[in-house]
């Protein structure tokens, strides 16, 4: 193995774990424990989790399901912290010991699910800096955001005809946030969260060009919420616009549990994976965001107004007004790209690019579309602009040390198929199963620039079986196999950390967390730090290498199982024939996990 280098925080990479194994693995010398699990009570009056006896009211006071984006904010003394987490969706078939026995029970479960999605804010504590955390039941800042939480729409769509409904004729208030996938933490201490696969929650007429472009259709939804809440049935006039009220970047202030979270329409409406912010040299803030759909796009927002240090109230208005762009990539070896993913003759997958304007200076840059139309039907505006069709942009994150922007393209199995876009230098593989990572350098390293250069940091894969796998020239035989990059994070040394989603069905190993060097001779060196339990996706991650602590949100462990036929027993691994301790169950529970050095 290749020993990790990264200041004090070094580790020996773990071996990849076969996808049939249900275990959570960390490097030698490290240990792990859950901080909080699905169902753990976060309010003083919320009940302990009881797998066999759940209720909507209990779930509303407990940690939600399928933890995704995670942040851990620390107070200066290191003894108190705040955990903020997205709950993207639910897995009904593994959340109960048996299938619902009656229509009434099925309806009650749907109410549980509506309280299991959204977000959580939970206080943390410990005796001293560097130790693992415990969560505080009843912490003053603890909060659950569910389908019933009020949000305020901001920006050009607020109050517009595109977002008015029977329940909200003014078009300014939305209840709930849906499909919250990745996110970001702003320099002013708020949390951004991306509304990703919102379309699946709505039944619509499904006939308009716009509906089809957003995957909205006229069939019963998987969740079935339209059966008790009319706003999820958008076929009639009353709630025709309800789906237009989802698909945004939302912002919450975790330090104020009574604040109304915002949905910022200026960043456009699409399947936002998340958004990450950097302050440009001129003080404007720039947010990068990907649309996670095959052949969809990469976007950038530039605020009109400037960041003011120590003025949170002002900074919380910055995402309400500004310019929106979409990326167009040009390769410099186009003739050599054949979809096989082989490195071009000039030695690199690289080229130049432009940020094509969608909205600039408060005016639409798209002929035939108003500003409001561009922001509510952003995908159609980007189609008209001529943006580059990408291989599913997941996290898009600028390095705050170098300003370079990293784009995780998770995979695109349809690239190059008949009738689909062919491979190009920025998405160079046909039927791209393993995904790749793009590195963007803005012109003059100015985050507000309208042009950039780019290259591919890596083409993912298992180098032992896949000769196309490419790691910026780092010897492929020395890296950990990696597939389907999803979430990104940085450590204090400037290394990129990548978590994966979908590796088991591609390279046969459980998903994991990987550290990647970006500079010098360590550039492209992929080292696996953690491996997830069976069927689980690696989310989060949060890297506090200054304290030798790493955090991951373990999402959907045992997802491929069913009632009474669990494929995972994470995180408590309570074996058949033993008595679970209070709070433990013989079923998987999505959990936020901390990884720390053994004492
Ligand atoms: Fe919810 Fe794009 O992953
Ligand atoms: Ca090239
Ligand atoms: Ca994701
Ligand atoms: Ca994903």
From TrEMBL:
| InterPro entries membership | PhoX
Pfam families recorded: PhoX
Q: Which SUPFAM superfamilies match?
A: Calcium-dependent phosphotriesterase
Lineage, top-rank taxon, reads Bacteria
Q: Identify this protein by name.
A: Phosphatase
What organism does the UniProt record list as the source?
Arthrobacter psychrolactophilus
């Amino acid at each position: 193995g290749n020993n990790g280098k990264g200041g004090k925080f070094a580790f020996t990479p773990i071996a990849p774990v076969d996808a049939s194994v249900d275990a959570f693995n960390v490097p030698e010398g490290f240990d792990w424990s859950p901080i909080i699990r699905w169902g753990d009570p976060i309010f003083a009056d919320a009940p302990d989790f009881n797998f066999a006896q759940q209720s909507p009211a209990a779930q509303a006071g407990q940690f939600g399901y399928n933890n995704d984006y995670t942040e851990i904010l620390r107070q200066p003394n290191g003894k108190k912290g705040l955990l903020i987490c997205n709950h993207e969706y639910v897995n009904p078939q593994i959340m109960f010991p048996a299938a619902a026995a009656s229509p009434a029970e099925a309806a009650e479960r749907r109410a549980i699910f509506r309280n299991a999605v959204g977000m959580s804010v939970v206080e943390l504590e410990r005796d001293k800096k560097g130790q693992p955390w415990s969560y505080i039941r009843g912490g003053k800042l603890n909060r659950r955001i569910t389908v019933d939480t009020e949000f305020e729409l901001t920006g050009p769509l607020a109050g517009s005809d595109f977002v008015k409904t029977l329940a909200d004729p003014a078009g300014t208030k939305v209840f709930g946030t849906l499909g919250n996938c990745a996110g970001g933490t702003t320099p002013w201490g708020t949390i951004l969260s991306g509304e990703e696969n919102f379309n699946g929650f709505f039944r619509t007429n499904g006939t308009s060009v716009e509906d089809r472009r957003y995957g909205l259709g006229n069939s019963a939804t998987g969740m079935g919420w339209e059966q008790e809440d009319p706003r999820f049935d958008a076929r009639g006039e009353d709630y025709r616009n309800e789906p237009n009220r989802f698909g945004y970047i939302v912002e919450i202030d975790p330090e104020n549990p009574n604040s109304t979270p915002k949905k910022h329409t200026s960043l456009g409406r699409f399947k936002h994976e998340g958004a990450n912010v950097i302050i440009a040299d001129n003080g404007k803030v720039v947010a990068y965001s990907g649309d996670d759909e095959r052949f969809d796009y990469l976007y950038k927002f530039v605020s009109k107004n400037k960041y003011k240090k120590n003025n949170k109230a002002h900074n919380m208005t910055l995402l309400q007004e500004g310019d929106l762009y979409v990326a167009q990539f040009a390769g410099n070896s186009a003739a050599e790209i054949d979809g096989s993913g082989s490195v071009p003759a000039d030695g690199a997958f690289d080229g130049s690019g432009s940020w094509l304007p969608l909205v600039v200076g408060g005016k639409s840059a798209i002929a035939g579309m108003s500003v409001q139309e561009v922001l509510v039907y952003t995908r159609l505006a980007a189609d008209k602009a001529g943006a580059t069709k990408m291989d599913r942009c997941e996290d898009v994150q600028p390095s705050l040390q170098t300003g370079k922007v990293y784009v995780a393209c998770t995979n695109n199995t349809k690239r190059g198929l008949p009738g689909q876009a062919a491979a190009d230098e920025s998405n160079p593989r046909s039927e791209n199963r393993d995904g790749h990572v793009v590195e963007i350098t803005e012109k003059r390293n100015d985050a507000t620039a309208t042009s950039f250069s780019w290259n591919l940091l890596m083409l993912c894969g298992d180098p032992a079986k896949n000769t196309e796998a490419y790691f910026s020239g780092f010897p492929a035989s020395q890296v950990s196999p990696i597939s389907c990059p999803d979430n990104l994070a940085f450590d204090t040394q400037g290394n990129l950390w990548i978590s994966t989603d979908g590796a088991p069905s591609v390279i046969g190993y459980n998903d994991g967390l990987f550290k990647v060097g970006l500079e010098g001779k360590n550039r492209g060196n992929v080292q696996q730090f953690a491996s997830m339990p069976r069927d689980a996706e690696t989310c989060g991650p949060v890297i506090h290498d200054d304290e030798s602590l790493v955090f991951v949100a373990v999402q959907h462990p045992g997802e491929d199982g069913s009632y009474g036929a669990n494929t995972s027993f994470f995180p408590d691994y309570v074996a058949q024939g033993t008595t679970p301790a209070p709070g433990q169950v013989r079923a998987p529970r999505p959990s936020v996990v901390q990884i720390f050095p053994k004492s």
